[in-house]
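User: I'm writing a tutorial on reading structure tokens. Could you give me a worked example: one chain, its sequence, then its tokens, then a sentence or two explaining what the tokens reveal?
Assistant: Sure. Here is the example chain.
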Amino acid sequence: MSHSGTDQNTRARPRSSRERALSIMSDIFGRPLLDGCDFGAPEARDASRESQKRVRALLTRNDFGGFLKHDLGLDKGLAALVGVGGGSFADTFLQTYDGNLTFLVDPFMHQSGFEDPSNVKQDEQEALLSETISRLHTQIGRYKLIRESSSAAAPAFSDCSLSFVYIDARRDYAGALADLIDYWPKVRWGGVIAGHDYLDGILPEGNFAVKSAVDRFAAAVNGVVYATAGWPLTEDSTQEWSSFYIVK
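And here are its predicted structure tokens:
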């Protein structure tokens, strides 16, 4: 018996073509795009296939709670809303989604050097926090607030642990792409990663490049982007505010 090299039983299994593709796909910061879940688990593949078969058109982001619960059967999982603001969407989501716990990720802190209309002064940030807590007074115990930036909070979540992630934070290309890359590994097979502001363009609210970031990301993970119907930015606009989602 040869004792040279690694025992055959302990050798790592060959990587799939998808794993190899992910390992060489890097974002603009040079970080690898990781999956976070076990590619080889049959139950994982089954969960993904079942969710893929149940995709449907959603009118607005307020439909996500019912979609996760009734269509995908993810009503007992963990969710994360990244970017909270005044808590309006969080309130609607918690009223329609019966997950075990929803994490609300937002630093509620003014960031120097970051130009965005949502980056309000610190006193306004504290007002938004108070507004969120007030809105969610009937949901105590069903959510956990994490006062961190999206990138700082991501490592706290275990890989493949979240049924749903909704990103409503940075709107620039680099920031939106970084959030997708950070949170994709945290989503379980059959789960959903979604987000707001699925559009590109220079608007009064800022310079948006979320759609470009989402489309590039979806191509990298071989995913299909589904967009909500949205609503016009202005009466004469051909662009619409809409959300997107990708099933893992």
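What the tokens reveal: Residues 1-10 have pLDDT under 50 and may be disordered. The chain has one domain: 14-247.
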